[in-house]
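Pilot study result, target chain (512 residues):
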Amino acid sequence: MVCKTPDVKVVIPATNVADLLRRRASREGDKVALVDGDRRVTWAELDAMVDKMARGLAALGLVGGHRVAIAMTNSVGFVVCYLAVLRGGMVAVLLNPMSTSGEVGRVLADSGARICVTDATAARTVREAVAGAVDPLIVVADAPLLPGEYAYDELTGTGRAAVRAPRDIESLAVLLYTSGTGGEHRGAMLSHRALLANIEQASRTKPAWVRPDDTVLGVLPLFHGYGLGAVLGQVLLQGATLVLGWRLQPDETLRLIAAEGVTCAPVAPHVIADWSQRPDGRQQLGSVRTLISGAVRQAERSLRDFEAQVGVRVEQGYGLTEAGPIVTSTIGTAVRKPGSAGQALPGVGLRVVDETGNPAHADDPGQILVRGRNLFSGYWPDGDGGPDAEGWLATGDIGLMDNDGDLFLVGRVEERVVVSGFNVYPAEIEAVIDQLDGVVESAVLGVPDAQTGEAVVAYVVPAVASDADALRDRVRAHCEQRVARFKVPSAVEVVGELPHAAVETRRAMGLA
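Predicted structure:
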């Protein structure tokens, strides 16, 4: 079976994401919602702060549909601003605060943002991006103001009634700029319907990955889809406590987990790799019940050794910004399969198709298609590139799905190598090479070839210094036994290390 379609009707708990906050505040207002360093904010306090900010934005002349750019690190201020924008019916345009001024300027111009809210980390970049322009206005938190700017803490609509969130669930909530399913940098339009649907879908895993009594680690960037929907979204739905941080560094993250008694820890794959080398991992992670990482290829033996060391299973998954972002998860899967990204969330449709659009045979790579209420409304501003007439979105990702519905990621459409007319996906060959004892990691590339059009070349990092010729022969022999002849590397290069692109981690976490 290579097609999994929705079998659970998704019940939308609200019509505006900010409604989730209002419900939390009314039911358990005294419970701590956010932890930011020494600061503790209850649900009732957070709700009041969001109301104040929403009134302040309205006082500046903003109305429903206006775009508000946010260039801030993870903080109480970010959460307040994001939810205030949504409560006021406006659209949040989320920016990486570490972007260059050119990148920020392009997003501001493309989105038509009227205001940009920033903090000390990104204020200089934002100012450079808008230099000489009339719009947008700049609102600054935790930094000195320049003439014409507004102070975040003073932004208030005193005298106005509390803002009531609009009730149109199809209205645009967020613009997230991503490389897109076609590779170009575009703004993905996520409606309240899409965000709420994915929050609900993710909550239906059994067991639930976030529970009301959880303390959730919030170091993944909230300006990307995974941190925004999978982390903050689940906290809002379940009423858990979110511990904020903005630097995803292994040492600092371990200290934060231990200090705050974190029970649910979503982290990037490179953090898991670092922690696996630490003898004190079990002690530092003693409070953690759920540990979540993106489905980046990691040495299976190292992953299992880490789990045995710390006593916590590492859950993985697959997603993309355009899907709100989560598509699959290993949480609740009956059988643990090496390299699996898990199964589709309840309410999410999943297919793997060949180049003709027909279902691929089980265990054959093909393009991943996704369907569900969690899908975006196309790319800004005209909705181009959205789901097709039947609701399916071609992701541009290549994977294979076995008869149990477990998804295995292989690569990207644009990464394929065509050898004598046959498709070869680098990640598939890398996974085979990495199984070989004595190999730390590998990378496979396509190079021009006069006879076959392209040829496969493998770069291999050995575990210890060894005879390069012998390792080359072992890699080739290993591949010859496990993959088709046209997939076997024509050349194997032994190298000391491999470059690692940040986009690999972002994509696997559904952030790119």
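One observation from the pilot: Residues 17-25+42-166 form a domain with the Rossmann fold fold (CATH 3.40.50.980). A full batch analysis is planned for the follow-on phase.
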